[in-house]
C-alpha cells in the first residue's frame, strides 16, 4: 500500500501543475509536440514571453520571493512586458542564469513554451 500512497502523493502536484498549465494557456499538455534540439539553430529569447519565469518552480531565493516560487506562479521579478527585471544581476538565481532559450523549450509560441516547461516540471517532480 505504501507504493500506492507514494504514487497518489506524486499525482496530486502533477494534477495541480497540469491544471495551472491549462488555465494559463487554454491548451492541454498533450498538444505539445517534441522538437529535436540537435538540429535546432541558436534561439533567442522571445520578447513578451516570460514562460520560463512562470511555469517552473524555483527553489532558490529570488529578490522579493525569499522562498523561491512554486510552479505556475509568476515570478515577482517579471515585468509587465514579461521581461526579467534582474537579468544579468548577481541577485538572479543561478538556475535562471543557466537556462538558455532553445527551439525545443520555446517552440513556436509562448503557449508552446508554457506547455513544454510545465511538462518538464511534471517530469522532474521528486
Overall 3D geometry?
A: globular
Mean pLDDT: 78
Rg over CA atoms, rounded to whole Å, is 15 Å
- What's the helix-strand series? HHHH
Domains (count)? 1
Describe the fold and architecture.
The protein has 126 residues and is mostly helical. Helix content is 37%, strand content 0%. It has one domain (2-123). It has helices at residues 2-25, 94-97, 103-106, 110-123. The longest helix has 24 residues, at 2-25. The radius of gyration is 15 Å and the shape is globular. Mean pLDDT is 78; it is low at 1-12 and 25-41.
Note the topology:
Layout lengths: L1 H24 L68 H4 L5 H4 L3 H14 L3
Helix pairs in contact: 1-4
Properties at a glance:
disordered N terminus, 126 residues, mainly alpha, 4 helices
Briefly say what this structure is.
It holds the Pfam family CxxCxxCC. This protein is 37% helix and 0% strand.
Amino acid at each position: 500500500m505504501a507504493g500506492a500512497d507514494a504514487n497518489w502523493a506524486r499525482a496530486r502536484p502533477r494534477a495541480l501543475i497540469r491544471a495551472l498549465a491549462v488555465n494559463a494557456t487554454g491548451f492541454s499538455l498533450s498538444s505539445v509536440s517534441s522538437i529535436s534540439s540537435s538540429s535546432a539553430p541558436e534561439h533567442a529569447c522571445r520578447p513578451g514571453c516570460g514562460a520560463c519565469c512562470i511555469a517552473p518552480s524555483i527553489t532558490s531565493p529570488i529578490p522579493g520571493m525569499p522562498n523561491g516560487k512554486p510552479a505556475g506562479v509568476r515570478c515577482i521579478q517579471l515585468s509587465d512586458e514579461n521581461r526579467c527585471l534582474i537579468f544579468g544581476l548577481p541577485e538572479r538565481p543561478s538556475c535562471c542564469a543557466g537556462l538558455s532559450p532553445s527551439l525545443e523549450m520555446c517552440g513556436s509560441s509562448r503557449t508552446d513554451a508554457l506547455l513544454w516547461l510545465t511538462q518538464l516540471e511534471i517530469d522532474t517532480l521528486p
